[in-house]
Backbone:
């Protein structure tokens, strides 16, 4: 699919301090938020829901304590919702490992990791607060150790003042 066609899939492409974020909407709901590679051009919000998302994400980028109140389309399995609810309970400035989260909800780390990877609403459901026991892990793991996803996760954790992040930053840079 050509970049222009991909661009048309989004009701907005936001150029935020954390990086590019695509906003998909339908029926007055946000259906997905997507981290995008830097080559995507910004796209102004095309509807009121995308405008609301842009406004609230901008406020979060200014203040890590901002609380989102966005109309999110229900997506995912009951297990994924259990994991996502546990992720939402992680305080700003803190991180948990997949293993810690799995123990908390009575599951396995791999299943927690898969649920994190299936998160339709990153930032709003702060999966960046979940790491592997040996580093940032999660969506930051890619073939490019200095890729845009790793940069996004580093920005989010630093923005939120994660003290646990400090040791990881020095071991991964």
Residues:
């Amino acid at each position: 699919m050509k970049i222009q066609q991909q661009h048309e899939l989004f009701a907005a492409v936001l150029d935020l301090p954390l990086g590019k974020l695509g906003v998909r909407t339908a029926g007055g709901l946000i259906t997905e938020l997507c981290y995008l590679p830097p080559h995507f051009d910004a796209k102004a919000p095309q509807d009121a829901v995308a405008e609301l998302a842009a406004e609230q994400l901008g406020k979060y980028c200014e203040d890590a304590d901002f609380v989102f109140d966005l109309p999110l389309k229900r997506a995912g399995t009951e297990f994924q919702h259990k994991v996502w609810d546990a992720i939402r309970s992680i305080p700003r400035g803190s991180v948990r490992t997949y293993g810690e989260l799995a123990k908390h909800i009575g599951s396995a780390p791999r299943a927690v990791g898969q649920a994190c990877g299936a998160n339709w609403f990153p930032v709003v459901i702060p999966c960046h607060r979940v790491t592997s026991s040996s580093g940032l892990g999660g969506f930051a793991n890619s073939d490019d150790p200095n890729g845009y996803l790793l940069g996004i996760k580093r920005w989010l954790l630093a923005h939120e003042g994660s003290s646990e992040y400090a040791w990881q930053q020095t071991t991964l840079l």
